[in-house]
């Protein structure tokens, strides 16, 4: 069906799974429905994710799974576009927002280490998605790396699990879900969801194109005020993908392929900066020398000042504020590279 420029393929809905209840216990019944068209051709449609062990997925689990897919596909697309290949990726979420994320070109174990040590407190009871198989060694890292007590996860999503890994990660009452989809091992720039986003509002719905902006380091519209090191460019890629799939407003701090602090859902830019720094500090990270990404422009210099004073050494944002010249001038004075993409092209508001 096409209406006013949007194409909605709603020929038939299929119930895939019943949920015990919705977001809250009083919201019952609840269920997952999928479109016939998505079921037939989209390898990442939620019906393609197979529960192989553990309690059935909850409504909130399905919401987190969908959000994980947005973040994972954006990371994969960004690196594939800019580097020509997809690294090992692991992302942990709580309430849909990344609280741990890591990438590495050759070492899957280092990827897990970076993820589980991102924000350990927030990851407790969260979900982790990986684009590589989970065997015993990977399971042991997910379970106990840098923690004296067993790390409790609500679920792990990966292309494949060994029976031994499942046995190791199992929780009492089968509360850890193990979900497999082999397509996760093939993530690249073509894995983004391009179907329109439909959101219920009272009396109707809002519709918009999906979130498909990917940072292109060589984009001529990307204005570069100062040069960055190769590792900072690499970190910009990870941070932008995470930032653009976290609840706005967001400031995201990344260092050496690891998410250190994700300041999400703030009503001011400086609030996001302070939250990202505090999150990194509370997790005992050394964020001096890290990069920061903002999902939209800085309306004043206070946000970048907060980041620079904390030790951030490169910033990626958008342009479009009347105070852009002041922000640029401040970063130039502090010798902190500032890269700006037009707000009309690369603004990263998400789940407004």
Write up what this structure looks like.
The chain has 352 residues and is α+β, with helices and mostly antiparallel strands. It folds into 2 domains: 41-186, Cytidine Deaminase, domain 2 (3-Layer(aba) Sandwich); 213-346, AICAR transformylase, duplication domain (Cytidine Deaminase, domain 2, 3-Layer(aba) Sandwich), CATH 3.40.140.20. Helix content is 32%, strand content 25%. The protein has 11 helices and 18 strands. A 6-stranded mixed beta sheet has the order 5-10-9-8-6-7. Helix 5 links the parallel strand 8 and strand 9. Helix 3 runs parallel beside helix 5 (136-144), helix 5 runs parallel beside helix 6 and helix 8 (269-282) packs parallel to helix 9. The longest helix is centred in the N-terminal third of the chain and has 25 residues, at 59-83. The radius of gyration is 20 Å and the shape is globular. The two termini are 26 Å apart. 44% of the residues are buried.
Structural class: alpha+beta
Order of helices and strands: EEEEHEHEEHHEHEHEEEEHEEHEHEHEH
**Order of neighbouring strands in the sheet with most strands:** 5-10-9-8-6-7
Number of helices, where a helix is a run of at least 4 consecutive DSSP H or I residues: 11
Fraction of residues in helix: 25-40%
In CATH, the homologous superfamily of the largest domain goes by the name: AICAR transformylase, duplication domain
Major sheet description: 6 strands, mixed
Q: Would you report the number of β strands?
A: 18
CATH architecture of the largest domain: 3-Layer(aba) Sandwich
Q: What would the CATH topology of the largest domain be?
A: Cytidine Deaminase, domain 2
CATH class of the largest domain: Alpha Beta
What best-fitting shape do the alpha-carbon axes yield? Answer: globular
The average pLDDT is 95
* Low-pLDDT stretches: none
Q: What is the C-alpha radius of gyration, as a whole number of Å?
A: 20 Å
Please indicate the count of domains: 2
Distance between the termini: 26 Å
Strand content: 15-25%
């Amino acid at each position: 069906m096409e209406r006013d420029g949007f194409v909605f393929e709603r020929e038939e809905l299929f119930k895939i799974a019943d949920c015990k209840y919705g977001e809250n216990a009083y919201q019952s019944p609840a269920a997952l429905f999928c479109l016939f068209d998505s079921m037939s051709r989209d390898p990442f449609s939620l019906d393609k994710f197979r529960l192989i062990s553990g309690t059935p997925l909850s409504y909130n689990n399905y919401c987190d799974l969908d959000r994980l897919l947005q973040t994972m596909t954006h990371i994969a697309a960004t690196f594939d576009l800019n580097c020509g290949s997809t690294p090992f990726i692991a992302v942990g979420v709580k309430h849909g927002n990344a609280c741990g994320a890591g990438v590495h070109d050759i070492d899957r174990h280092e990827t897990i280490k970076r993820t589980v040590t991102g924000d350990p407190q927030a990851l407790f009871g969260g979900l982790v998605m990986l684009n590589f198989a989970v065997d015993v060694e990977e399971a042991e890292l997910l379970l106990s790396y840098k923690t004296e007590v067993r790390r409790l996860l609500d679920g792990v999503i990966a292309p494949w699990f060994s029976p031994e890994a499942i046995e190791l990660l199992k929780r009492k009452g089968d509360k850890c879900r193990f979900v497999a989809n082999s397509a996760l091992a093939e993530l690249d720039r073509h894995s983004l969801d391009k179907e329109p986003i439909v959101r219920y509002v009272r009396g109707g719905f809002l519709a918009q194109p999906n979130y498909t902006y990917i940072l292109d380091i060589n984009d001529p519209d990307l204005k570069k005020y100062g040069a960055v090191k190769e590792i900072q460019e690499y970190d910009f890629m990870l941070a932008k993908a995470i930032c653009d799939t976290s609840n706005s407003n967001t400031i995201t701090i990344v260092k050496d392929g690891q998410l250190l602090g994700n300041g999400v859902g703030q009503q001011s830019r400086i609030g996001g900066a302070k939250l990202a720094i505090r999150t990194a500090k509370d997790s005992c990270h050394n964020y001096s020398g890290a990069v920061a990404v903002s999902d939209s422009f800085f309306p004043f210099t206070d946000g970048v000042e907060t980041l620079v004073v904390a030790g951030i050494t490169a910033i990626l944002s958008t342009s479009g504020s009347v105070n852009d010249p002041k922000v640029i001038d401040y970063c130039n004075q502090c010798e902190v590279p500032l890269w700006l993409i037009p707000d009309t092209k690369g603004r990263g508001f998400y789940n407004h």
